[in-house]
Amino acid sequence: PACTLDDFEIVCTIGSGSYGTCKKVRRKKDRKILAWKEMDYGSMTESEKQMLVSEVNLLRELKHPHIVRYHDRIIDRSKTTIYIIMEYCDGGDLASIISRNKKKGTYVDEDFVWKILIQMTSALEECHRRKDGKAVLHRDLKPANVFLDSDNNVKLGDFGLARVLHHETSFARTYVGTPYYMSPELVNNMSYNEKSDVWAMGCMLYELCALHPPFIATNQSELNKKICLGEFKRIPSQYSEHLNALLAKMLRVDVHKRPSIKDVLSEPIVLKKQSSFE
Ligand SMILES: CN(C)CCCNS(=O)(=O)c1cccc(Nc2nc(OCC3CCCCC3)c3[nH]cnc3n2)c1
């Protein structure tokens, strides 16, 4: 039987994004802690609602240890609100980890960076694998969309929803927030492709090490120039040349020279690090 709002009690509000509010909830029957995202579809057009339905259906099929697990959905027509019930990540997001370290003046451990790199890459491989007939879930990859569970394992979340629910015009959307992670091909209005995710992941991992993005500017056109030039300082000297070299490959301006997700996973240093985890 489908679940209803009565099956849950609200623990607290975690935060609100562009599409609505995220709350920590407890399922009454087994006291399991979950998260739900509340979205008001009242002002959506028919096609946007259709997009939402297909995004939610894609979410349901994504089952992977490093992708936030979808559990269920509840539709409350009286409030034109849909509740997407998902796994709760009690480690918070990477953005909070970066800002905490920045405040303390400390750097993130290299082993932790490798763990995030490997788990993130395998989550993206799963999304790209979904390509068979399915829209590639192009993810809004950024530290605020990468969560951790209680064992500090990566949980990639919040992808399609945010995209679908930006139902303001795409113009408004592109100029909301500085897209530090935009790839050169996107700056040049070429098509988004799997390697754009590799670029964004390179930017995110760079920021995890340096505690700031690889390309910084005060306005969009300055940022675009820096992105297309592709020059950035080495990550802090405490990080190994192995890690620096791999991030530099992910941040290659020429998309043909940039490794694919599979290339990253078959790098010798990645295979070596992976075996040291398992
Ligand atoms: C700076 N603030 C906006 C962040 C405040 C909140 N900190 S935080 O670092 O995200 C944080 C703290 C503790 C637990 C969790 N767990 C969690 N969060 C989700 O989404 C957060 C939401 C995403 C959109 C924007 C608002 C916040 C989940 N989605 C599915 N499972 C989820 N588990 C997150």
List keywords for this structure.
alpha+beta, 5-stranded antiparallel sheet, two-stranded antiparallel ribbon, 41% helix
Overview in brief:
The protein is of the alpha+beta class. The chain has eleven helices and seven strands. The termini are far apart.
Q: Structural class, judged by helices and strands? A: alpha+beta
Largest sheet: 5 strands, antiparallel
Give helix % range. 40-55%
Strand content: 15-25%
How many individual helices?
A: 11
Reading the helices and strands in chain order gives: EEEHEEHHEEHHHHHHHH
The bound ligands are: ligand F9N
For the biggest β-sheet, the strand order reads 1-2-3-5-4
How many angstroms separate the termini? 39 Å
Approximate shape:
globular
Explain what you see.
- The protein is α+β, with helices and mostly antiparallel strands and 278 residues long.
- The protein has helices spanning 46-61, 94-104, 110-129, 160-164, 170-174, 184-187, 194-210, 220-229, 241-250, 261-265, 268-277; strands at residues 8-16, 20-27, 33-40, 70-76, 81-87, 146-148, 154-156.
- The chain has a five-stranded antiparallel sheet, covered by helices on one side. A two-stranded antiparallel sheet has the order 6-7.
- Strand 2 (20-27) and strand 3 (33-40) form a beta hairpin.
- The longest helix has 20 residues, at 110-129.
- The relative contact order is 0.12.
- The structure holds the ligand CN(C)CCCNS(=O)(=O)c1cccc(Nc2nc(OCC3CCCCC3)c3[nH]cnc3n2)c1.
- The ligand CN(C)CCCNS(=O)(=O)c1cccc(Nc2nc(OCC3CCCCC3)c3[nH]cnc3n2)c1 binds next to strand 1 and strand 5.
